[in-house]
Design a protein that fits this description.
The protein is 22% helix and 31% strand. The chain is an alpha+beta fold.
């Protein structure tokens, strides 16, 4: 018995020892290639690895790593194409591949291990994989673009037409058949891997043996198709069977061609729908073969009989051909495909995360529309981008009409007056029991659905009227990982955070749209003005790299970067050429560099920047630019639109100055040292001209003294140092004298938030936004908005799901939450935690998943104590700034920081503490 007791005690001790050892393990918790997990479309000539580290210790940094890449999941020496050996370096992001160049269209495996500054060595990371892309016509091995029919050359519309009028009435444009394509093939041997590389324009959905491939919605992403078409890569090994298999592809229109009826903001016609595909089969015995799109494929019209990115979709289920995408289907009645020319200069892999159907939004209520027969209103309670799923039963040939809307009219009907009408969906029943359908190739922004032609199952059923078994709302957005969380004890700010986030989600597609209904276009000012708020919520590395590519493709020969990219239509005057929009060409690559540390997008964009800067110079007079949209949708006496309170020359010239000033910094980073002085001197000339025209040295007021007129010069660096304090005071007085009401618009509010936060005027930001009695966020919520609206007063005559005024999101994270990085830091290598308690708010929490790992800040404030919990990721440092003047008031984990070995100092009326990675609890005793 004693022996058993001793054995038991020893076992418990041993278990405890290994548990402690496991808890203190230094480990790798996340790996990416080109900032993507299981990345596809990797360019064999240039790519990079990143990994995140975890440790329970403080002050942990990597000191060395070893990385291996293999042709097989077996990392034997024969399979390795690169073994870095032990590299003495703390770099754990953007680590360049330096091995033998991988083959195109192949899957590779990799792993990494790391050593820290305490001598701990991690285990190898979990094995990850990446697949290289196809980058030349040769690598597609004879795959051809195929179509059902071909667009007549005289019907091509590139660039597109804005709101085509009576001159296009009745013209037969865009009413081609929407085709199905199929191909059968044999698996002759034991399969090792099957990869598919595919694109279909405007959008495609691919099935294999009757099952959908992947989770993409409306693939591929939107581009200027004459220059670039994107393709996608899938590993379909598990979908194939021994013997016969079948591929089926359905095509829709998207922006590739927009039909000439119903609503169309833009009407384009690059061509009729077409596709290209290569399937690569690798067998266990080492042999391989390919299946490609060519003359051997068959095609027929599909049951999608109408599809418009702007106007909806029609699906006639009586035209379904059961089993069309499975083996042994009789396609003798189908026609041979038509081989067509390539639509683009470059066929490139899509490197961003795809758009997917991300969540189902619960139905709140169903009510009958009294003045219409068999008409019901479904309220989902949330305005969002989305589609629906209809479940219905009825007779063959019965039809259901679905009209989505974000608002209701005075009669309780779907109201599309401000969002593009008419946009609706029609489903024609096949009549064989319960049927389920959802649209494939378009979406809308809506909260309500008006359903006509059926009766909900909860109501008394009528003879001959289809029964609506169910109707779901499904939200679509870009699938980029969520990286941020914010909450506070002040409930109004939580609701504002949700309001803005729904606008971000709804406009986060394959471009950053302005609205998910009326336009669906990539208006560029949002990319940088809303950039901070967007990046705190989602990992937007690949998304923003695509924006850069879209701008490069859109730039004109004379240097103009248009207001939208891709530029599907050439808008007129300021709506095509506004400096506050085109300046995304300079600012977005810089933001990518700051957020993620990657310098390559700046290098790639540099020629575009230089051409654009020269273009702006040519449009200026004595360095003043006087055109553009200005502070769009500021709150003045007239209906919102063009700037009312601030001269457009001020915002245009200020952003011109910032572009040139920023280029002087960028030039130094990318090795263009000789250009640094040129752009620096040029920016000083603009600054002098700007201050001469707009600044009153006696009153210290810029121009009209509007919120935008004062805050924008403060933020971009136009205010001379000797005047800065007084200019800040004029801004404070201006806001106070206007009863703390918000007036800045699309451009200016971004700079107002930054100006107040950076000049210790956070209490003003609180006062301006912690209210619902005047137009602003609280006012929108009070009116019933569930997503950020286009106008501060939430006007019904404009969009009620719009991205452009959500700049307070940045302050929630950087101001209230206190998460940022130091001025010199890249990719949050040196974190800055400086929460700004205001307005009697008792607590706030913010979390951000940086390239190095989790950064978190959580504080509580009371009369006696301010406490702050901080997490700093491994391989990062942090500067913690606390709201007290005296170091002796500060403890960490119960011990005075002055006696605990912390690098702490009193600075500018606050206490600054430098720390390494780890978790900390600081308390300020008042």
């Amino acid at each position: 018995m004693a022996q058993k007791k001793v054995t038991y005690i020893f076992a418990v001790i041993l278990l405890a020892f290994f548990a402690c050892k496991q808890q203190s393990t230094f480990s790798i918790v996340s790996t990416t290639v080109d900032n993507m997990e299981e990345a596809t479309g990797i360019n064999p000539e240039s790519f990079f690895f990143s990994w995140k580290l975890q440790s329970l210790e403080r002050g942990v940094k990597q000191t060395a790593y070893q990385l291996q890449v293999s042709k097989n999941i077996d990392f034997s020496e024969d399979n390795l194409i690169w073994d870095s050996g032990i590299v003495q370096d703390e770099k754990s992001i953007l680590v360049e591949y330096k091995g033998t160049q991988p083959e195109p269209g192949q899957t590779y495996f990799w792993k990494v291990k790391s050593t820290d500054n305490y001598g701990n060595e991690s285990d190898w990371s979990e094995v990850s994989q990446f697949t290289t892309g196809l980058f030349s016509e040769k690598e597609w091995q004879g795959a051809k673009w195929i179509a059902f029919d071909k667009l007549a050359p005289e019907n091509r519309l590139v660039p597109g037409i804005h709101l085509p009028g009576k001159s296009y009435s009745g013209k037969d444009l865009g009413f081609h058949k929407l085709p199905l394509f199929r191909k059968e093939f044999q698996l002759k041997k034991e399969l090792k891997q099957a990869l598919v590389f595919v694109s279909g324009l405007g959008h495609y959905e691919m099935n294999i043996n009757g099952e959908k491939v992947g989770n993409r919605f409306m693939a591929p992403g939107w581009t200027h198709y004459d220059k670039t078409v994107l393709y996608n890569t899938y590993d379909v090994t598990g979908m194939l069977e021994s013997g016969k298999n079948a591929i089926g592809v359905t095509l829709g229109n998207g922006f590739f061609i927009v039909p000439n009826n119903r609503y169309r903001k833009v009407m384009t016609a690059y061509g009729n729908p077409m596709m290209i595909l290569k399937m690569q089969l690798e067998y266990a015995d080492g042999s391989s073969e390919i299946v490609i799109s060519d003359e051997s494929w068959h095609t027929a019209p599909g049951p999608v009989t109408y599809s418009s990115i702007y106007a909806g979709e029609t699906y006639n289920a009586t035209l379904e051909q059961k089993g069309w995408d499975t083996p042994n289907f009789d396609d003798s009645g189908w026609q041979n495909v038509l081989v067509v020319d390539s639509p683009c200069e470059e066929l490139l892999p899509e490197k961003d995360y795809p758009v997917e159907l991300k969540e189902t939004i619960s139905l709140k209520s169903i009510s009958q529309i009294e003045d219409l027969e068999n008409s019901y209103l479904y309220d989902f309670g949330q305005n969002a981008s989305g589609i629906f799923e209809l479940t219905v039963k009825g007779n063959r040939g019965d039809s259901i009409t679905i009209t989505p809307a974000e608002l209701l009219d005075e009669n309780g009907h779907a109201n599309q007056r401000a969002t593009g009408r008419s946009h609706f969906y029609t489903y024609v029943l096949k009549g064989d029991g319960v049927e389920t359908w959802q649209p494939k190739f378009t979406y809308y922004g809506f909260r309500y659905i008006q359903l006509d032609g059926g009766t909900p199952s909860t109501e008394k059923q009528l003879a001959g009227v289809p029964e609506i078994v169910g109707l779901k709302m499904i939200h679509n957005r870009n699938a980029s990982p969520e990286v941020g969380e914010f909450s506070t004890s002040f409930e109004l700010f939580n609701r504002i955070d949700t309001l803005i986030k729904w606008a971000i989600k709804s406009n986060f597609q394959s471009v950053l749209t302005d609205c998910p209904h009326r336009e669906k276009l990539g208006w560029l000012e949002q990319a940088f003005l809303m950039g901070e708020g967007v990046h705190f919520n989602y990992d937007v590395y690949g998304f923003y790299v695509k924006i850069v590519d879209d701008m490069i493709a859109a730039q004109t020969a004379d240097g103009l970067v248009p207001d939208i990219a891709p530029e599907y239509v050439e808008f007129w005057q300021d709506f095509r050429d506004s400096p506050e929009w085109g300046s995304a060409a300079v600012i977005v690559p810089w933001l990518i560099y700051k957020w993620y540390g990657d310098i390559e997008p700046m290098k790639k964009a540099w020629p575009m920047m230089e051409k654009y800067a020269q273009y702006l110079k040519g449009k200026s007079e004595n360095h003043i630019i006087d055109y553009g949209l200005g502070d769009w949708y500021d709150l003045g006496p007239e209906r919102p639109g063009y700037a009312q309170l601030t001269p457009k020359a001020l915002t245009a010239t200020a952003i011109y100055f910032y572009d040139v000033k920023l280029m002087s910094e960028i030039a130094g980073f990318i090795g263009k040292d000789s250009d640094t002085g040129k752009y620096s001197a040029w920016s000083e000339e603009i600054k002098t001209a700007f201050n001469t025209k707009f600044f009153d040295p006696e009153t210290k007021i810029y121009s009209t003294g509007s919120q935008t007129a004062i805050s924008m010069p403060l933020v971009v660096g136009l205010v001379n140092a000797e005047h800065r304090e007084e200019v800040v005071q004029t801004l404070v007085e201006s806001i106070s004298n206007s009863n703390y009401e918000l007036t800045a618009g699309d451009v200016g509010f971004n700079y107002l938030v930054k100006a107040l936060e950076s000049n210790e005027q956070n209490e003003l930001l609180y006062k301006m936004n912690a209210r619902d009695d005047v137009p602003g966020y609280g006012y929108q919520l009070k009116k019933g908005a569930t997503a950020l609206t286009e106008s501060w007063p939430a006007l019904e005559v404009v969009s009620n799901n719009h991205l452009m005024l959500g700049h307070l999101m940045e302050w929630f994270y950087k101001g209230l939450g206190g998460i940022g990085q130091t001025e010199e830091s890249l990719a949050y290598k040196v974190v800055k935690i400086e929460p700004k308690p205001v307005g009697g708010i008792q607590s706030a929490k913010a979390k951000y998943e940086s390239p190095y790992g989790t950064i978190s800040s959580s504080w509580n404030d009371s009369d006696e104590l301010f406490s702050l919990d901080v997490e700093v990721p491994v391989n990062s440092n942090a500067v913690i700034i606390l709201p007290t003047k005296n170091i002796v008031n500060v403890t960490e984990n119960g011990a005075p920081v002055s006696a605990a070995g912390f690098n702490a100092e009193q600075l500018n009326g606050k206490v600054s503490i430098k720390v390494g990675s780890g978790n900390y609890t600081f308390k300020v005793h008042k």
